[in-house]
Structure formats: C-alpha cells, structure tokens
Amino acid sequence: xxxxxxxxxxxxxxxxxxxxxxxxxxxxxxxxxxxxxxxxxxxxxxxxxxxxxxxxxxxxxxxxxxxxxxxxxxxxxxxxxxxxxxxxxxxxxxxxxxxxxxxxxxxxxxxxxxxxxxxxxxxxxxxxx
Length: 129
What we know:
CATH topology of the largest domain: Ubiquitin-like (UB roll)
Order of helices and strands: EEHEEHEHE
Number of helices: 3
Strand content: 25-35%
Distance between the termini: 59 Å
Helix content: 25-40%
CATH superfamily of the largest domain: Translation initiation factor 3 (IF-3), N-terminal domain
Radius of gyration: 25 Å
Mean pLDDT: 81
Structural class: alpha/beta
Largest sheet: 4 strands, mixed
CATH architecture of the largest domain: Roll
C-alpha cells in the first residue's frame, strides 16, 4: 500500500494536473488556469503553490508565502491535537460538592479503575445549593 503524506506544504514545481483552480494569497479566486501559467505566476510573485483540495475538478491550489504555509501547518497541528484519537475512550463523571463520604469513595474507586484502563477521565463538580 502507498503511504500518503498528510503533511501540508508547498508542492514545488511538480504538479500532476494540467488545469488547476488557483487562489491568490489574499484568498481571491484567480480562476482556472494551465499549470505553466500558475508556475509563472508563482515565480513572478515569489510565492509557493500549495494543494488545498485535489478531489474536485479542477484541483484547487493556493499561492502562499512561507509565513502563511507555516501558520497553516500550526493550525492543522492544533486541530489534530484537539480531535480525539480513535480508540481513545473518555469517561465523564459529575457530582455535587455536597456528596456523601461513601459516595465519594465509590466514585474515587471508579475513577481509579478507568485510569488503570488508560481511559481519559473528566470530572465535573457542581456546587451544592
């Protein structure tokens, strides 16, 4: 099986498509153009072409500066961190601040079991009336 890089970065000069939809660095659409025209535009402005979406016809590329590419990579890394990992179980437990001692001990044992099983545990304590 081919391993695909999910990394976001400039594609350089190797573009497998003849016709592309190009977006400038400000987010404005420049329309569909031939790959040679897109490369010429990239060289004129000192920017890099980045593939945004390839599952559409024609594929969408964006002209970006190095700084924009770096910021986009950081955003995607943050999103990836924030999204729950597959196979990861998160348990949530909520109780009042006026909980009885024996109930607290029972819930503490339950939390310890979940942690041993490597589950993520979220605890919410509500203020008693």
